[in-house]
Amino acid sequence: MGEFLDLSLASFLLTMLRAVVALVLLWCLLRLVDRAVGFDFGQWLIGTSGSSHDEDVEKTGNENQTAVAMYLGARFVGACILFGLLFS
What we know:
By secondary structure, the chain is an all-alpha fold. The protein has four helices and no strands.
């Protein structure tokens, strides 16, 4: 009975280690993608555009919001695929 508990504990700890590694890799990957496309998630969250051309932002505001929504959706799908591959 003791061997089974040891094996269960080792399996649980290995699964938790894999989850932590997956989260760190996911965070690094999303940061890398953000830098590659020039997207500042922090500025987007607080609502600043980061552009000094307010008129241009007002003209294309809806297009920018759609693009950001598609980008964030693609990030989520990519994260799901990464987790699925790591845990399968």
